[in-house]
Automatic annotation (TrEMBL):
UniProt-listed Gene3D superfamilies: Transcription factor, MADS-box (3.40.1810.10)
Pfam family, one: SRF-TF
BP GO terms, sorted: positive regulation of DNA-templated transcription
GO molecular function terms listed in the Swiss-Prot or TrEMBL record: DNA-binding transcription factor activity, RNA polymerase II-specific; protein dimerization activity; RNA polymerase II cis-regulatory region sequence-specific DNA binding
SUPFAM superfamilies attached to this UniProt entry: SRF-like (SSF55455)
Ranges of residues in domain MADS-box: 1-54
Source organism of this protein record: Turnera subulata
Cited PROSITE patterns: MADS_BOX_2
Designated name of the protein: MADS-box domain-containing protein
Coiled-coil region(s): 86-120
A Gene Ontology term for the protein's cellular component: nucleus
Amino acid sequence: MKEIENDITKLTTFSKRWLGITKKASELATLTGAHVVVVSYFPAIKQYAFNSPSLQSVTNHFLRMEINHFKDNTSPTVGAHRQLRINSLNQQIDQLKQKIEEEKKKEKIMKKKLQSVERNG
């Protein structure tokens, strides 16, 4: 596959394919009661959208579902893995803080040496 170069052919192909996609999305929504959103952006026409029931209600439902998934549906295995990862990241942070402190000490020593050299210059 490659992009169609001719703008008229490109628009025609987009329109035909868009009609096919929205027909299938509508059938899916009708047959299963699913909430379906299909959004496409085509520069010459800007935005096409198919919504069942509405874009806002479907996106709100999806966002609520995602938030609840992370709050309530975390399996013990996922929770344990997440905690291990957090612990590992905290260790890395502690190591970096320690390195920063060491570098600050080295900086103080270097400043003192520089001041001594400048005085004795």
